[in-house]
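User: Structure please.
Assistant: Input sequence and predicted structure:
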Amino acid sequence: MQCYNTIARDDLKKRIDKLRKLRYNLSIKLIGQPFGKILDVGGGDGGFLEEWGAKKEDCLIVDIAKPYIEEAKKKGFKTLLADVETVKLNKKFDIVTLNAVLEHVLHPEKLLLNIKRHMNIGSRLFIVVPYKEKIKKHPKYEFTHLRSIDEEYIRGLAKKSGFTVIRMKPFLAQFPGQVVFPLVREFRTLLPDDCLCKIFKPEDLFIEMRLRKN
């Protein structure tokens, strides 16, 4: 718990960077418009929901890090400080988002089984994770990225947790120079994502899941 609070405090000292905002926007492009009741699991300070334009009264952010929850509250979001693997909310949601969370949690299957309890048959689960990451020990934090994730890992996790994978799409948030040089950013927008992923190594994986019908 203390490690997550330290990570959150350090993260909040930085203003949202261009790369993170670009990653949010690429995720939003794949998800589409927000609708219904939304649960943002490990939603931090609400930055993704803000960028998405979700109605705050329709959203709940659950996070284990108190600094994030305090910041999200200031922005007007409904929040809950809790362990996302075990929290019981006694309600169900139309959309559940896991944005850069699955690589951090100790028990991914336990997390998805708990999320499953808060979804209806027609609900949608959207996940974004680092793609085929080389895991290295962080010099400062104990719990950072705990596993490397690819399509095979996601299929196995979905099967064990009672989900059906609807879509999986690797995508590239940046390529060399685009954050620094505006002209490179403009060039990036002209190229289709599939083309970029053939030229450069994709950095993230977008996943859509739904409850598996018995």
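Residues 176-181 have pLDDT under 50 and may be disordered.
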